[in-house]
Amino acid sequence: QQPVQSPQAVILREGEDAVINCSSSKALYSVHWYRQKHGEAPVFLMILLKGGEQKGHDKISASFNEKKQQSSLYLTASQLSYSGTYFCGTEAPGSARQLTFGSGTQLTVLP
Amino acid sequence: GAGVSQTPSNKVTEKGKYVELRCDPISGHTALYWYRQSLGQGPEFLIYFQGTGAADDSGLPNDRFFAVRPEGSVSTLKIQRTERGDSAVYLCASSLGGLAHEQFFGPGTRLTVL
């Protein structure tokens, strides 16, 4: 079953913060976050494993609440280059490594 | 190093024709995945190879779709008797295999069935 992402779209000014949520109805082993720009391949951002860990990369960080089967992606002081569609991909135990992706959150950063 | 490559980048075909889409994974990556992405949607899993064998083909929509990876490297996705509903971007990804390894995506093949 496909994870649910919210919001579907968000528009920011450069320097503002944003949070993107990903929620699953199934138990998860890991959550993967990708960013995709129009006409390009999805680009890997980070993986979070069960255990409630948090990770960060530059001004983008994420958390994973295993009990709630939810992950959130935090974009701090957004830059124009952050614009794109963000997808979470979930990996369930016994899923043979396939990712089930949400329908995406379209992020637009304006100058 | 070279990333995942896919050919052709665009393929236009007529309904009922046969098409082959090729994927060259990152060297040394034992796991290879095919996904399909429709406009405004996330990638949808089709099939996963570990080495030469298809470890999971549960995402293939029907028996018109078939994929091979005979030498554990390059993979070909084959679609018989194409239908207009097959139009989408077909993405290939590779990884080191195992759980929780990042998947590197190729640029995709945009398939249009007229």
Helix/strand layout:
The complex is a heterodimer of chains A (111) and B (114).
Chain A: E1 4-6, E2 9-13, E3 18-23, E4 30-36, E5 43-49, E6 54-57, E7 60-65, E8 70-75, E9 84-91, E10 100-101, E11 105-110
Parallel strand pairs in A: 2-11
Antiparallel strand pairs in A: 1-3, 3-8, 4-5, 4-9, 6-7, 7-8, 9-10, 9-11
Chain B: E1 5-7, E2 10-13, E3 19-24, E4 31-37, E5 44-50, E6 53-56, E7 65-68, E8 75-79, E9 88-95, E10 104-105, E11 109-113
Parallel strand pairs in B: 2-11
Antiparallel strand pairs in B: 1-3, 3-8, 4-5, 4-9, 5-6, 7-8, 9-10, 9-11
Brief write-up:
Chain A has 111 residues and is an all-beta fold. Chain A has no helices and eleven strands.
Determine the number of helices of chain A (DSSP H or I, runs of at least 4 residues): 0
Quote the distance from N terminus to C terminus of chain B. 37 Å
CATH homologous superfamily classification of chain B: Immunoglobulins
What is the largest interface, and how many residues per chain? A-B, 24 and 29 residues
Q: How many helical elements of chain B? A: 0
Q: Tell me the quaternary state.
A: heterodimer
**What is the total domain count of chain A?**
1
CATH class of chain B: Mainly Beta
Give the overall shape of chain B.
Answer: globular
Task: Specify the helix fraction band of chain A.
Answer: under 10%
Largest sheet of chain B: 7 strands, mixed
Helix content of chain B: under 10%
Largest sheet of chain A: 6 strands, mixed
CATH superfamily of chain A: Immunoglobulins
**Can you count the beta strands of chain A?**
11
CATH architecture assignment name of chain B: Sandwich
